[in-house]
Amino acid sequence: KTVEREIMEAEFSDYFQNAPIALHWLSKDGIILWANKTELELLGYPRQEYIGQPISKFAHPHDQAIVREMTQQLDRDKAFHGVSVRFLAKDGNVIYLLIDSKVRYDVNGNFDHSIWFIRDDTSRRIRDVRNKILLDET
Predict the structure, then answer these.
(1) What tens digit of pLDDT does each residue of 24-62 get?
(2) CA angle, 40 as apex, 52 and 62 as ends, to 5°?
(3) Cα 96 to Cα 31: distance, rounded to the nearest angstrom
(4) 71-94 burial by CB neighbour count: b if 16+ within 10 A, else e?
C-alpha cells in the first residue's frame, strides 16, 4: 500500500467510526457484523457485547417483532426510510431511533450485508410530549 492510500483509509475509518449518526452492518439473519463507535456509545455497549448478537436483542420488547421484520424485508431487497423503533440502552433507558437502510451486494449480486443509518430521536420525542402537555393545559 502506498502512504497516501494508508492515510486515506485511516481518514475513512475515523469518519465512519465517529460519524454523527450511528451505523451498523447486519448479516442476512440480522446478526450485527460491525457497528461504529457512535452506535456503541449511544447504546452504552462495549463492542464485545454487541457485535455478533442479533439486532432484535437490543430492541425494546414491544418493538422486537418490528426489528425482525425489518431484517426480513432487507433480505427481500426492501430498503426502508425513517422507521421509528425503540431500543434499550445497556443502562435500561429507552432510546427512540429513526432508521434508514440499504443493502450491499457482493460482486455476484448476492446479499452481502445490510447497512443501517440510525439517528437518535429521543430528544425530539421528549420535546413533542412536553409541548403536547403544555398545549393540553391551556
Answers:
(1) 999 989 999 999 999 999 999 999 999 999 999 999 999
(2) 75
(3) 20
(4) bebbeeeeeeeebebbbbeeeeee
